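My main concern about presentation is that the manuscript never shows what a single data entry looks like. An entry of this sort, consisting of the sequence and the corresponding backbone structure tokens, reads as follows:
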Amino acid sequence: MKYPICALAVACLATTANAQPYEITSHTIDGGGGTIAGATYELSGTIGQADVGTPLAGATYELTGGFWTAAAPSRLCADQNEDGFVTPTDFTAWIANFNTNDLRADTNQDGTVSPTDFTAWIAAFNQGANGPVCNP
């Protein structure tokens, strides 16, 4: 009599058992790393694929972790006709870009095309190939 009651209790428990939830967690392969620093720039990293997440951004540069992405197009801010050179013809191109509210004329990279961009363009032009880089 004792065994049939135990068998009935085991059968009731077996029908109400739930499976454990499964979870896939994120892992990275990090093997240390370090920091490289120069007079102006500093880069820290680890060995392995960087974690996917929100871009790390500073005043001028941005670092996006995760899968390899295509590089954002960039050009010298003074190169308004996008021929790869900083020449006097870029002044005419800057005026045309400014008059059409083209973001290439946003030389100070504040998100708007305004007269202050002209002062920034002159400074960038005077620096030539060593001038600031703009996107777009």
